[in-house]
Amino acid sequence: MKKIFGLIVLFFLVDVNAGNLCCSYPCQNNGVCLTKGFKDYECDCTRIDFYGKNCETLRSNLIDIPPPYDNDHSYITLGAHFNHSFYTRVLPPVPEECPTPMGVAGKEELPDINALVQKLFVREKFKPDPIGTSVLFSFMAQHFSHMFLKTDFKRGPQYQWGGHGIDMTNIYGKNKHDENLLRSFKDGKLKLQTINSEDWPVLTKDADVEMHYLGPVPAERKFALGHSFFGQTIKIVIEDYVQHLSNYNFKLMFKPDLLFGENFQYQARASVEFNHLYYWHPLMPDEFIIGDTNYTMRDILVNPGLVIKHGMTTFVDSLSKQSAGAVSVIRK
Ligand SMILES: *[C@@H]1O[C@H](CO)[C@@H](O)[C@H](O)[C@H]1NC(C)=O
Ligand SMILES: *[C@@H]1O[C@H](CO)[C@@H](O)[C@H](O)[C@H]1NC(C)=O
Q1: Which ligand is nearest to the CA of 87?
Q2: Which residues form ligand 2's pocket by a CB distance below 6 Å?
């Protein structure tokens, strides 16, 4: 009797574990897995380029965008599509009550977070970039990515306050009001000031825009962001920035007209996974050599005073001559 009971319990357990078939991610090509009753599943292939039981069959030549999830739900929601306060999630969440944290594969328990940080983030030795990317590039990367990765820290790390796109808000501010405060309304230029005969943005007190500087920065060094060569940004980004990041052997070109008239969905959303991956620690050198002075990372952090001290020309010139670190998936 005891034996039979044991067997029944065993069968029951096996059955529960096999219960949610979505745990094994049967839907391909970003199809959305839905449970159907207790023992079946269905793949929703809406808005993707495939159809079939597991969204495995090619339908057309659309370049599609993965269905967006938000951080608060384990299923797709209207909010994930339309509410811009969320970073979307591209990776489908692991369904509830799966045998392992990864669904059915992988270990029973997630690794210790501190061990992960040690393994993935802590640098052992600086590796110079093999294709000669300069340290200046990492400043460009930060400036550029501030357009679309704008975490709303008041609400939490899953929220953001931007428009999810390349919108030049890093130069012009987040709305028309701020933009007008930054503009000179003369010759299409932003407000500028001259320091040691170089063009600089005005200080925040003179443009009266709200800017958040991390750490203690004196008022006379709080610049209101803006510069005058914005027209080239996209071209520089595609042909230089993406080239450097990708390490492709072929040369990238910016030619948006190639896609005119094609079935291409332009609209995309900044996703939380992208934000997590978007750290350029490996680009940073152990020391920054500006002019003939050797600075540590701590000296450089939130310190526009150094740029004034050496002058923009020397600063840019020095950074463009120093090699950045190699970007890799492991950020050491
Ligand atoms: C968007 O989501 C946020 C956070 O959940 C919520 O506070 C806000 O009301 C939502 N906005 C709309 C228009 O639904
Ligand atoms: C900069 O300083 C560090 C630490 O003091 C030293 O290891 C490094 O060799 C110096 N680099 C140059 C170029 O002087």
Answers
A1: 1
A2: 287, 289, 294
